[in-house]
Amino acid sequence: MREAIILAGGFGTRLAHIVSDVPKPMASVCGRPFLRFILDDLQEKGVEKVILAVGYKWETIRDYFGEHYRGMQLRYSVEDTPLFTGGAIKKALAQCTNERVLVVNGDTYFDVELGRLYETEVPVVIALKRMHDFSRYGTVCMQDGQITGFCEKQPCKEGLINGGIYLLHRKMLSDMPDRFSFEADFLEQKVSALTMHGVESEGYFIDIGVPEDYALAQESLRPLVKKRKAAFFDRDGTINVDVHYLYRPQELQFIDGMPEFIRKWNEWGYKVIVVTNQAGIARGYYTEDDMHTLHRCMNERLAEYGAHIDAFYFCPHHPDFTGPCHCRKPKPGMIEEAIREFDLDPAQCILFGDKPWDIEAGECCGVKGVLTKDKESGGQVRA
């Protein structure tokens, strides 16, 4: 499981006359918060858990995104007083469990192949971007992949800049104070003592920190805003044999032909999204972490067939234990959320389920439903 921290506590001082009432990552770009572009990119690249390091008007971010987005877990690390970038990262790292954690600037979109950052085991890896004719950024000196120094901002014909995406060992900042600059007090001061590698990326880069680039982002990121199509699947009884409150990976058994069927929808360019009632969580039979572990196992098993599920949406409620909700099928809440977060066109979507309430939930959102047979009747989709 990949974890990431997003530094989302910025005031947006240089954008104050344009964006004055929200944190900088929530500045509107192409009619949506800029932060959505970053989260979308991380989700597409396999990140499953994001800790948002927040401060200024952080409730704006929480109220918009909540605790899940596109199937990712969202957690919040709140600064009561400004901790600067280093302090914000250190505080957020306390909520991480992986040995290596991605850190991403909340005002920068950088299309980086994240897998390349994981290819080396050094303590710090930084994604770098080659720029031409610039003076806004300092430069990074590198020799044979190892970073040797950081230079101050000055007019430059060509050079590598810090792209604002890092891969750090989780305990890397444990000896640092609670309030410090990650760039000035850690990277620049520790570059001689620590092994830091740079990975140059040719992916698109834009930093919305100044009005000129904020305006540019309105056009350059517009191609990423488009209506998509999806194939929705119920889980138990549709993808896998229903063993009643499944959460143990060893009990996972795919319905015959279902991995190959999912692969077809992957190949046809559809997002494959699971929407599943998980009353076992409300009943206390298993935890959300247990469920996430099962879903990771499911995708690992599907990968053996060349298939994958893009996102899992789940309802952890049951009316007898948690009261009514809007997400438990046949209520349409999970599908509505996926349509909003993935920019889906319901008319181009389809839903497969083994129960009438699956179909009803889809129809509430304008999504065509197809009732499937269960394993006992052959495990085939009934068209």
Architecture overview:
This protein has eleven helices and 19 strands. It is α/β, with parallel strands linked by helices and 383 residues long. It has two domains: 223 residues, Spore Coat Polysaccharide Biosynthesis Protein SpsA, Chain A, CATH 3.90.550; 148 residues, HAD superfamily/HAD-like (Rossmann fold, 3-Layer(aba) Sandwich), CATH 3.40.50.1000. It has an eight-stranded mixed sheet with strand order 5-6-4-1-7-12-9-13, sandwiched between helices. A five-stranded parallel sheet has the order 17-16-15-18-19. A two-stranded antiparallel ribbon has the order 2-3. β5 and β6 form a beta hairpin. α3 packs across α4. The C terminus is likely disordered.
